[in-house]
TrEMBL record:
The chain crosses the membrane at residues 20-39, 45-67, 79-106, 118-143, 155-175, 195-216, 223-240, 252-271. Residues 376-404 are annotated as: Disordered. Residues 377-386, 394-404 have a biased composition (Pro residues). GO terms for molecular function: peptidase activity. This is PrsW family intramembrane metalloprotease. The lineage of its organism: Bacteria, Bacillati, Actinomycetota, Actinomycetes, Streptosporangiales.
Length: 404
């Protein structure tokens, strides 16, 4: 079988070319994160380590929850890592510098100490922080537009940026709570920020993610949609920060707003996933003549549970190589249906569409060949989604005594 880099094909990049820009971006973001951590460590003393542990503790679970939205067409891990590190590094350090300068030279001198801090938190911080967090999403729209196939992708990237930012910001809040009120106040702040509403920053930035996703998948509104999304993120963030002036009632209202937004985002992802399934059922049958898909294979592709069952079957038949081949096939088929989505909306340049289509079909074919060539301990076993044997993943029957 020809040597092919499945990841490169699925991500639409040139095989063998290192992602220099992403590596540089992660390095710069990591440096900024270290600088921000150093400042917290100097100011927080021993409380810094308590805040650091509590801030990191829920992050693996939150990332896992976010990535459950990304199972049908997973985003490239390296881009997800970059997005997270941008939020934890560049966005946090930039916000620290700009917010401090704004307090020192604008809001406090003009409005006084108390009012200046409130105005900075309600208006200045949302403007600065959401702009810095959204910058990476605008960068993806500019440099990797084809990586964003729909609203779910915009939400995923936005959530990764927001989680990185929230983790670093929470360190400061936990240190401050421990210094001001000891363990009791620290416990209260951790429950509110780490457990009750840990997704506030991801939810804010998801508004920008929705605008960027719209711009990446539609011909109209490519400028206004991201700007409106960024504005919505700033407004939500400002309402959250400004609610402190209204006591417990204000907090309850913004908590309810966050909950409603979370439900709406989940509905958007669910509706979009059903749309992807419809496109799989619509567009993949046209490739039946290639021998790569049958109606039964299409049925397997339209359900996450059926896909898992197919991978288990592949593993039982041919071990890890067969399971990897099945995964590559499933992802390439999904990318092919999303490619047709772009063509359907008139945002796929014809030459790029043909090149991308041929690359995905080639990967599907190579994955299928790799699967079929895996040594099998016994006679071919019919896959669970095609008990009658009508699947491209079974070798063709041997010719009879009189030929086919």
């Amino acid at each position: 079988m020809a040597r092919v880099d499945p990841k490169a094909v699925l991500e639409g990049r040139i095989p063998g070319r290192p992602p220099v820009a992403l590596i540089f971006g992660v390095a710069v973001s990591s440096l900024c994160a270290l600088l921000a951590l150093a400042l917290d460590a100097v100011q927080g003393g021993a409380a810094f380590w308590v805040g650091l542990v509590l801030a990191i503790l829920p992050i693996p679970l939150l990332i896992a929850l976010v990535l459950t939205l990304d199972r049908m067409e997973p985003e490239p891990p390296r881009v997800l890592v970059f997005s997270f590190m941008w939020g934890a590094g560049v966005a946090v350090f930039g916000a620290l510098v700009l917010n401090t300068l704004g307090l020192l030279y604008i809001t406090v001198p003009v409005f006084g100490e108390v009012k200046g801090h409130y105005i900075s938190a309600t208006f200045g911080a949302p403007l600065i922080e959401e702009s810095l967090k959204g910058a990476v999403l605008f960068g993806l729209l500019w440099l990797r537009r084809n990586e964003i196939d729909g609203y779910a992708d915009g939400i995923i990237y936005a959530c990764m940026v927001g989680l990185g930012f929230a983790m670093m910001e929470n360190i400061t809040y936990y240190v401050r709570a421990y210094e001001e009120g000891g363990a009791h106040q620290l416990q209260t702040v951790f429950i509110l920020r780490g457990l009750v509403v840990p997704l506030s920053h991801p939810l804010f930035t998801s508004m920008t993610g929705l605008g960027v996703a719209y711009a990446a998948t539609h011909r109209r509104g490519r400028i206004i949609a991201p700007l409106l999304g960024l504005l919505a993120a700033m407004v939500m963030h400002g309402l959250w920060n400004g609610s402190t002036a209204f006591g417990g009632g204000g907090l309850v209202l913004v908590y309810l707003l966050d909950f409603v937004v979370l439900i709406v985002l989940m509905v958007i992802v669910a509706v979009e996933r059903r749309g992807t399934v419809r496109r799989i059922e619509t567009y993949l049958p046209m490739y039946a003549g290639t021998g790569l898909v049958t109606p039964q294979d299409v049925r397997m592709l339209h359900s996450l549970s059926a896909r898992r069952a197919a991978r288990r079957w592949a593993s039982s038949v041919g071990g890890r190589p067969a399971a990897r081949a099945m995964t590559d096939y499933q992802l390439a088929a999904t990318e092919l249906s999303l490619l047709h989505k772009r063509a359907e909306r008139g945002i796929a340049e014809p030459h790029w569409f043909e090149t991308r289509r041929d690359a995905l079909l080639s990967l599907m074919g190579l994955a299928r060949q790799a699967f079929l060539r895996v040594p099998r301990p016994s006679a071919p076993q019919a896959p669970p989604w095609a008990p009658q044997g009508q699947s491209g993943f079974l070798p063709p029957p041997p010719p009879g005594p009189y030929g086919r």
